[in-house]
Here is the input.
Amino acid sequence: WCLANGRRDGRHCGIDAELPLLFDTGCYADFTFPSAPDECQPNIVNQLYWPVGDLARRRAYDQGERARVGRRHDDRMLFIPGPIALDRRPGSPRIRIESSAITANDPGTRARVDSWVEQGIHVEGRPEWIFVKVHTHGAPEPQAESLLGDGGRAMHDALRRYDDRKDWFLHYVTAREMFNVAVAAMDGRKGDPAQFFDYRLPKPPIAG
Here is the structure.
């Protein structure tokens, strides 16, 4: 959450030109966000986008060009954020920020899964391919239940409702595969996104 000196106090980063540095060393996409309510949250939400302007400036990710069919860049990272929204937990009157983090205190419930899908993150011109990028921070014991226990099972049960093989087809993908599908969409490809998991970046070789 300190990308390109995203914090005003400069802690944990210290590099304004981090975006081109990351790209030059092999990064093809950034999956950092959302980070709200942290101050490094960008101005752009619920969109796949390319950063624009001087990419060496501080917080260069704050301005971007929406990813769309018929145009892509090969000289910068693609930003693939997770869904962000305002909602409230069942039984609570308080409005909160849904920032697509799966934690011990905030597992992937049915209501949250629905909210992720409802944000409709997609490449402009290909709205039928919805991207849902969620994040967690490993599976330490206090958090494991939300991923590997009842919390995880409830989340996957909720996700399976979006796989009726008629109106919805669910795909679990890696970061690389998600990027490949996004690029395929920008190149005008249609049909089953699974065709494009290795579209631009191939599978890494297996050591052995």
The first helix runs from residue 18 to 24. The mean pLDDT is 93.
